[in-house]
Amino acid sequence: MDTAERVLAYGGGWLDRAGPLRTDPTRLNALRTKSTTVVLPLWRDRCLVDADGPVRLTAERASLVLSAASETVFLGLDGDVAVFAADLSALTEQSATEMAGAARSVDVRALVGRLEPGDAAVQAYARGLLHWHRQQRFCGTCGAPAVADGGGHVRTCSGAECGRLLFPRIEPAIIVLVEAPGSPGRCLLARHAGAAEDAYSTLAGFVEVGESLEDAVRREMAEEAGVTVTDVTYQGSQAWPFPAGLMVGFRATATSDEVRVDGDELLEARWFTRAELRDRVASGRTLGRVDAIDHRLLQDWLAAAP
């Protein structure tokens, strides 16, 4: 199977994002008041849930939440039904949950496995947009207030001599499964600063200005682990709106098995054989986060050889 075509957690949402509607305020306002319109309420980046999962509000309850929300964004269309997200962060958690008819608030990452992948993707999409709005209240150029526009997909600086358009940012990061040269097959895992003892994961880092993704792979592996890599090969990508990431997965081959961790971001790094990783799984340890692309990178590597 082509790993680049796989849908990972927080991808594959079922919405038509309906870009042209974002610039039609008359139609958006009409959709907001339709009884069939669905509203997804969030509170400080957390889903509001009942016994069945994240609540989906319509009719009077949706109208009440929309009127109380500090920010509303148009997410798209589910068939002919408009879907909005509403931010109730200005309320207390109790007030927000009661208004939404929910029981509590939960991080969407804690719901993976219980939600259908497409539902998790839409909740993460809503979370990422609403988080951005709370962080982008003012123009970074002139300091004037920035006003939401475009169905919540852009903010416009209100400064008379500025008017800059501000779009939701995405922060790309690379995540890499590094293989040792030669036999036996081994991959490099590291223990990051702040991680529990014996908690290992793949290496990752943010892409810097003026870098290609492949450049970032080579730089990060050299800086963090003292490893020079070749054969950098794209494996897949994953939306990671926590708050604004895009994880891009690669596989690469080290030119030697020498490792020198930086002692800052990485505390230690070591090579693992497939047998060692299978033993870790058998003992109850997980291979990275089950909702993250590093889990898929490690699974694919284990499946590549007996």
Automatic annotation (TrEMBL):
InterPro entries listed in its UniProt record: NAD-cap_RNA_hydrolase_NudC, NADH_PPase-like_N, NudC-like_C, NUDIX_hydrolase-like_dom_sf, NUDIX_hydrolase_CS, NUDIX_hydrolase_dom
GO cellular component, one term: cytosol
Co-factor(s): Mg(2+)
EC numbers for this chain: 3.6.1.22
Database matches in CDD domains: NUDIX_NADH_pyrophosphatase_Nudt13
Entries under SUPFAM superfamilies matching the protein: Nudix
EC primary class: hydrolase
Pfam families assigned: NUDIX, NUDIX-like
The organism's place on the tree of life at top rank: Bacteria
One GO term of the biological process aspect: NAD+ catabolic process
Protein's recorded name: NAD(+) diphosphatase
Species this chain originates from: Micromonospora arborensis
